[in-house]
Each structure stands twice: as structure tokens, then as C-alpha cells.
Predict the structure.
Amino acid sequence: MKKLSISKGTRSDLLTCAGVILAFVVVSALKANGGLNRSQAGMLVPVCCYIVMAVSLNLTVGILGDLSLGHAGFMSVGAFTGIITAMSLAEKIPSAPLRLALAMVVGAVFAAVIGFLIGIPVLRLSGDYLAIVTLAFGEIIKELITCLLVGVDERGLHVIFNFNGSRNANDLNLGAAGRVIVKGAQGATGTQTIATFTAGFILIMITLVVVQNLIRSRQGRAIMAVRDNRIAAEAVGISVTRYKMMAFVTSAALAGAAGALFGLNYSNLAATKFDFNTSILVLVFVVLGGLGNIRGSIIATVVLYILPEALRGFANYRMLIYAVVLIVVMLTTNNPVIKSYRDQWQQKLRREKGREANAA
Amino acid sequence: MKFLAYLVSGISLGSIYAIIALGYTMVYGIAKMLNFAHGDVIMVGGYVSFLAASNLGLPPLVSVLIAMCVCTLLGIVIEALAYRPLRSAPKLAVLITAIGVSYLLQNTALLTFGANPKAYTPVVSGTLQLFDGQLSISYISLLTVACCIVIMIALTLFTAKTRMGKAMRACSEDKGAAQLMGINVNRTISLTFAIGSALAAVAGALLCSFSPTLMPTTGSMPGIKAFTAAVFGGIGSIPGAFLGGILLGVIEALAKAYISTQLSNSIVFAVLIIILLVRPAGLLGKHTQEKV
Amino acid sequence: MTANSLRVLNPQSAWAAEDSAAPGAEKKKTKLVPVVRTSYLPERDADKTPILECIDLGISFGGLKAVDNFNLALGRTEIAGLIGPNGAGKTTIFNLLTKVYQPTHGTILLDGKDIAYSSTEQVNRAGIARTFQNIRLFHNQSVLDNVLIGLHNEMHYTMAEAVLRMPRYWKAEKVARERAMEYLSLFHLEEHADEPAGSLPYGAQRRLEIARALATNPSLLLLDEPAAGMNPSETAELMENIVRIRDTFQIAILLIEHDMNLVMNICEGIAVLNFGRIIAKGTPDDIRANPAVIEAYLGRKGAQKL
């Protein structure tokens, strides 16, 4: 009985990983044999990024139980620090995969630091107040990056914070060999697109290992205890702030890594890409996939990311259909009648399992 | 004198935020949900009054009244179809549904009216010249501030004095207990959505009179900012929403004028964060502690 | 008398429910000896530092003195009761002891150390565990996980070790699971280890909450109405359990309870609270005979009738 409970969770985790590996192998094979058209192939890296975003947001919303509406902010931090890292090291590190890996690490570290700083005020709040403050931070990050001018030349990195709009790229005073990396409201321009599907796959696997192993540890149980009953968690000696912060920062770091990968997939990228709507998009993936359900997040991301693309034939109607699907799914999955049927069915299943176990 | 001009524009902008926030705060108080579709009701209000005024050639006041009727109906329908079935569902399910409704309204507007901005004719035009023309205040600013004050007073009286208002307050505190006292909870919530949406229509017309570009996404940011204003003042509190809205508008206008145009939203949000840290329930909100 | 107090420590006699429950049977009573500041301790604990000492403890909520001038000392292996009419401030005292509320005045000494600057979770790590009047389990998590969460601070591995599944992780998890199952079996819950805690019957939930509190390895256990909602046979079993916990773990237990049968039978020292103040303190016999207590429970008229 005891043994079973350990392996049941782990088995489910391994199944998720196996599914991801299988999907990667199949898609890679398809890609190698020309089974994907241009637009499909172009979706591979972003879909990996959004999977990581969804799984990491699930850590905050599903496992920690705090509604965050500013997750795209961390993605943004990761994207721009990652782009700056990769672009400024273009000569020093010729190997693109190595540069990409380094960019993702830097993106993760910066996002984690920002996550920690934001976490100090945010995690003192709860419920909708926390939600609105994360939204606020997401918007603040977006506007701050919009004011950023970054360039690199032989003397190193030049950064200007153009907060009143009076300065432009010329003020960076770059040398002859210099190039501008981030151009304020235009965002990052002329980025070398070194992101690859394989890197995306590896990042998903790392995310799965981190999040799933975290959930099934004393730290993960503490995080869920804080979610389920904060007062009881404190009463059994769990430091609420510490574990909230742990979940929040881990989530931010993973989003940062995803952001770096995302940023290095496009030659031009503006900070406005990571606005409130992107945060909401990822939140929709998480909620439709099931709160706290990692595998659900992955499946929901893939389905919902591909859905609008698949609906391209309907042209203008696709977002309308998307909205209707969203509402209908929410209404049906939360319909009391359907819910009670499902619960009954699950109970029956459990009872039958118990009977089998007794018979054995 | 320049400062005064910025202040006046801030107050009138803030009045619009306050009108939206008043509706938002009532809906939030009773439904306890972040109604992301609220901002899009503003946009619908804008389009309806635009159509009534420019296509049918109706006078501005009538067009605004028509917009109010349409939005009231829209609010009731949204509540009945999308939110009422989810009354016992987890909060996040309702939030996602609200986002779905928001997308739905935006995209319906996009398909019907196209993405090009429409040039909205202000409800009233002309400016008032003061101090030998050193300070000019547009009539629309004055109208907005007046509207906002009237609405605030009317809502305060309504919730404090009338039977329905009391039912509303009872429902926002405890729906179960309210039901046991014979209050029709569904009807009360419908009414709240109706009022909130009617206010959104007014706000829509005023907002478009201010910045006469009307797009399917016109309502999103003001919606979010109005919610910020409501949180600012203490969500659920009518004077709080008023105060929050005005403060937000003033901070935004002054930040734009004196600090940075690009960072004006950031400054507004930063002030919100600071206020919430000092007063976790907002300026006029009541803090409740969980009983152990 | 020393022999008498030892009798309670003897597990076999303590487990004999009929012995302690039978009315009129000659009960073996603990003798209380006075210690500092009008408090009493069981004789066997008298020479050691009290596990808990409250000195002039009090809290006001906006002018209302919910608890005032609360003085109490608990022996290291004492089972003590806190009784009083509804609204007397009993749970408030638990909330003060666990720092859910900050006292407005007074001192709490846990094992001789002041806990004024400790937070709830630090107080738990320092040795106070509690249960709640309205059960606060982690409802969606399994019964086993609830106890594992209680064992949180008994496990020592870092997040990195958990994520990388290092040997320390496996070892600590294995030991913790075994210990958790032991705690569950103390309360006959091992059968339900994999079920969600919320699906347990009421009585079992109360037992699980005690198991979870014990898992934090406390030296003082606070039980807030442990018998509420239990039927007489469950209550009898609970009484055995409480005494057995004290004997096995050698800890102090302070309980709030309205079931006078339970309180009078297992508590060695009792404090009676009314309107936030202690109106009587002593052995069960002292309390039974105290006119102030009778008045607090029955009112002046009722007391006169008796």
C-alpha cells in the first residue's frame, strides 16, 4: 500500500516525461522528412516556450495557489537579458548552442532576481489584490524595457535608460564595430535567431524535472500546505514566506529561461509582445489544463496554441471561435450536473479498484 | 497655471476612471470576481452611442441613453449566461470565463466595425476660458466631473437607503444568509450588473469624447486602470472607488506632464503597489482577518 | 502520594478505560504542589522548569480585554484542562500561545525561554503544536501527506537535493514515511493513508489532526476541543489516546474541552476561564467544589439552587 503510493505519483511523472520525449522524436522525424510546412515548423520553438511558461505558471497558480497575472513580465526579463547576453558574446563564443544555453541561464538568473524583488511586496498580499499587483508589475516591466537602449561595441556593453523619450540609439556612442541590440520601443532588432527545437525540448525536460521533483519533496508539500491552509501550515512549523518565495522565484526563473529561448527565436522583438494579454494567454493554458496538473498544462498549451493556427481557414472568425471555446469549456467543466456525474464515476472506479485489490 | 491645467485634465480623466470604478466595485463587491469583460462593455457603449449619433443622427444625450439601455441589457445577459452557472465554481473558472467574454466582445466588435479607429464626435464641445484665456477647460471635462459626482451620490444613497440597495449590501456580505432573509439573490446580482454596465456605457461615451478614437480594444486599458482605482480606494467601497479614480487620473496626468510619458502607467501602478503595502485593503477599505 | 501520581504514568492502567471512566471508583489523583506565582504543577514535575509559564498574559481587541491577567504554569508531563463557558477566551489563549495573536501584555515562557519575538512557525519549532477547534487539515492531500507535512522540519534536505533526487532525499523520505505510518497507526489511521484527508469521517479527522501535530515533535500539545462532535465511545477512546500520548512521548498536553467527563477524568490540573480571566485553578476535585465555577456555568440563580 505504502510502496504503491510512492510509485503512483512518480509513475505519472515519468509518463509525462515519456510523452514529451515521444512527441519530440515524432516531430523531429517529421521535420527531418519535410513533413512540416514553414508555418508549422515556425511554431515549434514558441510552443516549447509556452509549455515551459504554462508549467512554471502552474507552479505559482496551481501549486502555490496565488493568482499571478504578470507572468509574461518574467518572460520579458529573460528574453531581453538573454538576447543581450547572446548578442554581446557573439564574437567571444562562436558556438551557437553554447551561447543559447548561456543566454537561457542568464535569462533565468535575472528573472529569478526580479522575481525575488517583486516577491517581497507581492507575497504579503493575497487573492485578487495579489493578482492586480502582479498585473501591475508585469506592465511596469514592459514599460521599463520599452525605455531601454542597449548596444555593444569593442569597449563593452552600453546601456541607456531613456525614460523621457528624449534620447535615441545615437546617444549610445558606439564605436565603429558597435551594434545596437535593444532599441527602445522597437525592442530587440537584428537578433541572430539561434533558438532551436532541440533546445526547447531540453528546456521542457529540465522544467519537468524541476517542477515535478519539487512537488514530490518536503518543499513541495510545504508549498501545497501553505496553499491549502495557511494557518495550519504555520502551526506545523512551515515558514509561509520562505516557501511562497521558493515557488515564486522558481517559477520566475523558468519563465526567464523560456523567455530567453523565445527572444532568440525572432530577429525582431518588441517588449509590448510580453504584455498583459500574454500573461492571460498562459493563464488560460494553465486553467484549462487543470490547476496543479503538469501534464494537463502541456496538453492544453499544445492544443490551444495550435487551435487558432488550425482555424486560420476561418480567418477573422478564429479568435471569436477561440473565445466561444473558452467560455463553453469553462461552463461545461464546471457544470454541477456534469461534475456530479464525473464524481460518481470516479468513485465507482475507485471502489472497483479497491475491490480488485481486496480480491487479490 | 500650467499645473492647474494638468490638474484639471487629471481630475476629468480621473472622473471617467471613477465612473468605471464605481461600476466595477459594485460588481466586484457582489460577485467577488475580476470582471475582465467590464472594460469591453465600455467599448460597446462607445460604439452604440457612436452609431446612434452618427448613423441615425440622434442628439448626443439620446445616443448615450440608448447606449446605456443596450449595455444594461448586455450586462444582464452576460451575467445570466456566463457567470450565473458558475456561481459555485472555483474563482479561476469564473475569471477565465470573464476573459472569454472579453475576447468575445472584442472580436465581435472587430468583425462588425473593423480594426480602424472611428472618429467619435464629442458629446458636448467647446471650452470655457478662465483667467483671460490662461486656463481653458473643455465643457466635456466639466460634464464628466459633474456626472461622476452625481453618480457617486446617487449610488451612495441607493445602497444606503433603498430596499434593493440594502439587498445588494446583504448579498455582497453573505449570499446564503441573504437568501434565508428572503432576498432574491439572482435578481439582486442581475441588477448590480445592470447598474455597472449602464455606468460603463456612460463612461464609454465620455471616454470617447475625450480621446475621440474608438477601437475594439478601447476599453481594455481603462478597464484595468479602473479596477486598479477601485482597489486603490478599497474595493467594495463606493466613496473609495470615487477617491481612487480621481487620484489615479491626477497621478497619471501629472506623471505624464512632469516625469515621463512612457512611464505614466508604471508610475500609476507603482503608487498602487505602495498603497497596498501600507494599507492592504486600500485607502477606504476595511481589513478583515481570518478567524482562527 | 508519589505512588499515586506514578500510577497515571503506568500505561497499562491508563489504557483501562473502564477504570478511569467508572464514576465513583476510587480514582488515583495527582497531587498538585504550588510553584511560583499562584500556579501549581504535578508533584513529579515540580523540580523541573515548567514547560510553559504564562505571566500576566493579556490581549485587548480595540479596548475589549479578551484575555487579562492570565497566569499559568504547566508541568513537563502534565495533562491540563482549560475550561469555561462559550466566549470565555479559551481559544484566544491558544492563539496567544501559538502567536497567531500578539499578546498586548505579559510574558510566555516556553521551557523557560521567552517567545515574545517568535512567529507562529518558530513557536512550533520551539515545541508547541496544536489542533484547531474547526478542523484545519490539508483536505485535498492524502492522510499520509498530512502527517508528512507535520514532519516537515524533521526532514533535512535542500531544494537542490530534492530536484536532483540525491541520496539524502531518498533516505529522508523513506524514514519520514515510516515514521508517518507509525503516527498513523497510533490513531488507527494507517488503513486510510492514501485517502484524501477531507474524505475521512469527522472523528478520524480530529485524530489525524492530533497525529499531524504530534509529528512536529512538540514538547507541549494544545488540543482545542478534541472531543467535539464525537460519540461517547469515540470520546472514551480519545481519552485513552490522550493519556497514552503523554505516556509514550512524555510531553505536556493542554486541552480545551466542554465534555466534563473527559476533563475531570484525565486532566490533572484545571484552569477555569470566564470573561477572559481565570476564576479558579486546581485539581478536578477543587474545581468541582468551587462555587465560582458553578456560578460561571449555571449563573448566580442556578448556583443558588444547587
Observations:
- Confidence is low (pLDDT under 50) at residues 1-5 of chain A.
- Chain A has 13 helices and three strands.
- The CA atoms of residues 146 and 185 of chain A lie 5 Å apart.
- Chain A has one domain: 43-359.
